[in-house]
Amino acid sequence: MRKIAETDFVSLTSLKPGEKAEIISINAKGEIKKRLIDLGILRGLKLMVVRKAPLGDPIIVKISGFLLSLRKEEANKISVKYCE
Amino acid sequence: MKDSKTIEVLLAGNPNSGKTSLFNEIVGANRKVGNFPGVTVEKVEGIINYKDYQIKIIDLPGTYSLTAYSPEEIVARNYLIASKSNLIIHVIDGTNIERNLLFSTQLMELGKDFIIAVNIYDEVEKKRIKINIAQLQKLIGVPVIPTSSRTKTGINELIDEIIRHNEKINSVQKKFNYPEYLEEKIIELSKILSYDTELIQEYSPYWLAVKLFEQDEFVYKLLKGRKIWLKVFPFLTESSKEIIKRYEIDTDLLISEARYAFVKGALAETVNFSETKKRSLTDILDYILINRISGIPVFIFFMWAIFQMVFNLGKYPTDWIQQAFEWLGDLITQNIRNELLSSVLDDGIISGVGGVISFLPNILLLFFALAILEGTGYMARAAFVIDKVMHTFGLHGKSAISLITGLGCSIPAFMSTRTLKSQRDRITTLFIIPFMSCGAKLPVYILIIGAFFSPKIAGTVLFIVYMTGILLALISAKLLKSTILKGESEPFVMELPPYRLPSPKSLLFQMWNKAAMYLKKAATLILIASLLVWLASNFPKSLNIEKSYGYQKESVQQNKYLNDDEKKQILSALEKKENSLQFQHSIIGQLGKIIEPVIQPLGFDWRIGISLLTGFAAKELVVSSMATIYSIDESGTYSSKNLQQKLRENYPIQTALALLMFVLVYVPCIAATTVFHREAGKTKYTIFYFVFTISMAWLLSLAVFQISFLFQIN
């Protein structure tokens, strides 16, 4: 099995609407981390960026069947790798 | 009824799971609305009588987990872990079953009995999601009942299940294991915790152990003061370290992943999602309503529509209510001879009660509108669209809705801040709402602007006043957020629920819950406050004035050279003059004179001082107080010139500008202040709110007054 290089990981913010990715790690702390965990944002799950707000921030992602909006500030703490 | 057994049931689940609609369907109108003790979180409980039982159902605020942050979540969690209720109904959104079941895994650990209602089942069927209920029940180990408040499916089955459960107790068991080493450590830790016999009477030791590994603040605090902590802490630190080393991930994430894996596994065996390529209604509506071009215009349109609905539609019932109370007041003054008694009844009690009730149409309509926004799913999207702007000033997207409402009336605006989860965001929003000019300030602006500015620029000046308010609100938010209310604000991690059509029943109940809260919590205080203001503006009476005018009136009456019309005219002039003098002699009048030195630098005299003081009772009163005071001029003679003329003659334009600023910023009316106090929940906030608004008003008016003089020199 090929080990995935660190460079393959990007932060969720760098995805464009329509792009899909798999969650690699959650690097948040405190309340944000708890919120993400509570909403079931966990390693290994696939998500898709659906759209950005009119002013560019926050963004909406689709994950395990529901829509989640989060600010870039928070999205930055989720690293993903492209899939498909 | 006497022999009936009482069962207490808690309704819990994720936000947007249709929990409240289900609650409404089960209990109907037989409900009690109040607050959870100590917090401004709405508590709704309903009672149904069924067979021999009386079933009490408490609708808990929606929560995603048992780790709580917002006041709502803390309430829900405290109830779930500490209450002695007989049963929990976990309501889940059947169309979003995966994430909703995560909460079930947490309930399993709690060791309390629960049953699952797979709600919104009509949509589940429409979407052709096949759920094998029997199999799911087996895997999770608790009764599972499909329900829908729209089609009224499963309501009776749910009630039957509650009763069946009450007759035979079968304890819920956790149906999954954590990774081996972690599970071992959890069990070891729960054994240590079991030594504290007092503690485990209240809480399940296993649950406490899991929560400790999850680094749950509440459980940490709970244990820190206890003797057992000396054994727990070293064990916890040591094993956490080892777990992180073995699994290369934080313990809280590891725990959540294990729960998720269980849910995923259970669903793989029981649920069949028919993957359709067709775009859902939510996709289409989002594409139209919140895309990058139309998003903001649509948001502005909806806000405008709400504003129109609340305040224009609300105007008619408000007018009717006010007219009805005026009519009642007239009836009293005409029929009760005793002047004091009729004044207490009319100006004190009737106008007080009338004031309380006249806010009701606006409150009802606003909460109806908010219920529609929330129920359809647009509320979260509105916050999403405008969040960037609000975040720049340290606020949350949802604050925008409260601020816009504040342009109509501060009372419903204060109440609407409940949609904000973070306490800091709420308090900040509460503080800045007064800067949004409410409807009652408009007559004051019109009076002053009309007196000092030509009709051509009057509109522009009015616009500038409103804009100044909005700007002040946003700047103050930034200021508060970076000083006294500093701290992490609510992260914007928010679910956008699918668009749904809320049932009229649900909308009406939600509206009524809010109105009941207002009447119950604010009404009596507003009434008392109105009475106090009445007292202060009517007492003490000067006997000298009364006597001297009594003589004068008497002599006019008996004057043979005057005809009836002339007499009437002179008498009414005397009456006004007497009222004006008595008003100046009252507590408020004297206070106005006392504060003159303080407000002199702003270009105000005691007359303006008195008027501003009465504005605390209601902003419109500033106008009528001025009319009363200015009915006599400097020399003490009655003058019939109109008020705007007199203002123009008495004050320079700089005073007018300063006055506009002062009215814009200074403390809202007593009714609003009462509601503020209720919503903020702490006396220190109310004191700060007074100091903040009044000192801001003073400083800004001073600045306006002095700076506008500089400009005139040039």
Any overview of this molecule?
The complex is a heterodimer of chains A (84) and B (714). By secondary structure, chain A is of the alpha+beta class. Chain A has a single domain (6-82), classed as SH3 type barrels. In chain A, 15% of the residues lie in helices and 37% in strands. In chain A, strands 1-6-2-3-4-5 form a six-stranded antiparallel sheet. In chain A, β3 and β4 form a beta hairpin. In chain A, 42% of the residues are buried. Chain B has 34 helices and ten strands. In chain B, α27 (587-594) crosses α29 (606-614) and α32 (653-665) runs antiparallel to α34. Among the domains of chain B are: 5-167, Rossmann fold; 180-272, Helix Hairpins. Chain B is elongated and about 105 Å long. Chain B starts with a strand and ends with a helix. Chain B has 714 residues and is of the alpha/beta class. Chain A binds chain B through residues 26, 30-40, 42-44, 50-58, 60, 64-71, 73-74, and chain B through 64-65, 67, 69, 95-96, 98-99, 102, 249, 252-253, 256-257, 260, 282, 286, 290-293, 295-296, 380, 384-385, 387-389, 391, 488, 491-498. β5 of chain A pairs antiparallel with β10 (493-496) of chain B, so a sheet runs across the interface.
Which descriptors would you attach to this protein?
heterodimer, A: 84 residues, alpha+beta, SH3 type barrels, 6 strands, 15% helix, B: 714 residues, alpha/beta, Rossmann fold, Helix Hairpins, two-stranded antiparallel sheet, 34 helices, 10 strands
What topology does this entry show?
The complex is a heterodimer of chains A (84) and B (714).
Chain A: E1 10-11, E2 20-26, H1 30-38, E3 46-52, E4 59-63, E5 66-70, H2 72-75, E6 78-82
Antiparallel strand pairs in A: 1-6, 2-3, 2-6, 3-4, 4-5
Chain B: E1 5-13, H1 19-27, E2 31-35, E3 42-50, E4 53-59, H2 71-82, E5 87-93, H3 97-110, E6 114-119, H4 121-126, E7 130-131, H5 133-140, E8 144-146, H6 155-167, H7 180-194, H8 197-202, H9 205-213, H10 217-224, H11 229-247, H12 251-270, E9 271-272, H13 281-289, H14 295-335, H15 339-358, H16 360-376, H17 378-392, H18 399-406, H19 410-416, H20 423-432, H21 442-452, H22 455-482, E10 493-496, H23 504-521, H24 523-538, H25 543-558, H26 564-585, H27 587-594, H28 596-599, H29 606-614, H30 621-629, H31 643-650, H32 653-665, H33 670-680, H34 683-713
Helix pairs in contact in B: 3-12, 5-12, 7-9, 7-11, 14-15, 14-16, 15-24, 16-23, 18-19, 19-33, 20-22, 21-22, 21-31, 21-32, 25-26, 26-27, 27-29, 29-30, 32-34
